[in-house]
Amino acid sequence: MKTDSAIPAPAPAASAPYRSRRVSPGSIVRYVLLTAISVVMILPFVWMLSTSLKEPSDIFVFPPKWIPSPIRWANYSEVLDAIPFGRFYWNSVYIAALVTIGTVLFASLSGYAFARIPFVGRNAVFLLLLSTMMIPHEATSIPMFLFMRELNFLNTHVPLIIVPIFGAGGVFGIFVMRQFFLTLPKELEEAAMIDGCSRVGIYGRIMLPLAGPAIATLTIFTFLTCWNEFYDPLIFLNDRNLMTIPLGLSLFTDEAGTAWHHLMAASVMATLPLLIVFFFAQKQFIAGVAMTGLKD
Amino acid sequence: MSRSERKLRRSPLAREANITGWLFVSPMVLGFVCFLLFPMLMAFYMSLNDWPLLGSVEFSGLDNYKNALSDSAFWKVLGNTFYFSAGLVPLNIILALLLALLLSRSLPLMGLFRTAIFTPVITSLIVWSIVWKYMLATDMGFVNQMLNLLGIEGPAWLYDPKLAMPAVIVTSVLKNVGLNMVLFIAALQQVPAHLYEAAKLDGAGRTRSFFNVTLPMITPTLFLTVIMTIIGSLKVFGQIYVMTQGGPGNSTKVLVYTIWETAFKLFDLGYASSLAFILFFIIMAFTLLQWQLRKRWVFHEN
């Protein structure tokens, strides 16, 4: 990547005509298009929120009501009575937290070693790891189901925590951390080594504190992937009290049928907290999620 | 080189590096062997067997693959999967690129638009699919209510074999277009401004400079994004599970849905593994294609 000073200029082509205050037809088209698509994107959230506060009889009235009247908060308490939503929440939070901590810890250890410690077989092992990233998860999950059954881990959270840390997500984490550590100057370590600092010390006291941005990105990527994971919980969990939010919610759709006011209340509860965090930490979120696109 | 390497290996410093190096990577490598490599080999072995969840396992060679390839239901499923990809990928890429171009100027409100378009990306696919299932409900779903306002009687989107797949495709595009858009915005910002100035001096208009400057410069990103979107689309599952369950009449039954159903509803693990490996081969083909074609475009990356 080049670092010309000219690059960050966000308006490279023909920006001059737009500098003037007069509104050009081009920019009107631009704003109309962007407004239209943004409305389409946000509309499901608005409609979800609106329906979640409606009387059941108001859901299917025509023409559609945007603002519910009267506002029916009971939809939420009814959902909380019908399904153990608090449990779903706790399960999702702690599983995603453990997976994230585990991934960051092990991936940064490996990533550092692959970037900086010249051990025998380093390149071969790294290539082997990378080459398995395209293995579809659906293939490995079938034997994994059998192993977990043998070990009596079906219907527990063990597979949901262990498998992602060491699976494709972990391998991807190693790659991200290695690429980051490669960019740090070698002189830092050399100086520390001369001062008699051990490898563990260098990793823990020098490299890791410097890896803040890479760790933040990997954390968001891992947490979000785990938070939204659906396939594994679907395979490994039966007990409703053990379910994560996406699985519990999908099961609730079978029961609620067309009780959309309940379904939308549940959806709002499932979506809102993460959405709030997103609005406050957009930059980090976008960087973290954009990594998905670069995966592989 | 080998001599100096050998010398290095014998030195205490090199020994120390070997031990710490392997110690550092050992948790990941061990986990990788147990949870990725071994399951992968095991899955391949399973695909060569008649392997019910309960009952006796019998080696059957390539029978599972032969059965799949001679089963019209399999071809229907594969066709549906490719239909989904063929619909989703161009729509997603073109829309993402268009949005990235629209957002690449620093004008007021651009950040707000970007946030709005990116919001579905961080939303759970399951929630998004539930909400859209509701919006696409036949009688008084939001979409049909809007059509009603225009005096059009809306169709039964998710219950019509002809419309279900397009409906799932469009909702999936809306869910993920923000991701590719962000990648394209980043790529557009990497295009050096002097190239546009040069094109302008040479008398190129907006369209010419898009096709002769922008497009060639972002080709590596574009290409990588296309391949990743294709691979992702071949693994479509969650939205099908929530919105259509493969119906109506198998019209949206895709490969991963079938793998899941075969393994965990019908408990035919051997056949399911063979289907998973067919998916793996298809994905590998696209990955190899990416590596091959990347070489051609490599000069753009430097």
Automatic annotation (TrEMBL), chain A:
It comes from the Bacteria. It is a multi-pass membrane protein. CDD domains: TM_PBP2 (cd06261). GO terms for cellular component: plasma membrane. One of its GO terms (biological process) is transmembrane transport. The chain crosses the membrane at residues 28-49, 93-114, 126-148, 160-181, 202-224, 259-281. Keywords: Cell membrane, Membrane, Transmembrane, Transmembrane helix, Transport. Pfam families: BPD_transp_1. The keyword Zinc does not apply. It is found in: Cell membrane. Residues 89-281 form the ABC transmembrane type-1 domain. InterPro entries: MetI-like (IPR000515), MetI-like_sf (IPR035906). Belongs to the binding-protein-dependent transport system permease family. This is Carbohydrate ABC transporter permease. The lineage of its organism: Bacteria, Bacillati, Bacillota, Bacilli, Bacillales.
From TrEMBL, chain B:
The keyword Transmembrane applies. Belongs to the binding-protein-dependent transport system permease family. The chain crosses the membrane at residues 21-46, 82-103, 115-135, 163-188, 209-234, 269-289. This is Sugar ABC transporter permease. CDD domains: TM_PBP2. Its main location: membrane. Residues 78-290 form the ABC transmembrane type-1 domain. GO terms for biological process: transmembrane transport. It is a multi-pass membrane protein. It is found in: Cell membrane. Keywords: Cell membrane, Membrane, Transmembrane, Transmembrane helix, Transport. One of its GO terms (cellular component) is plasma membrane.
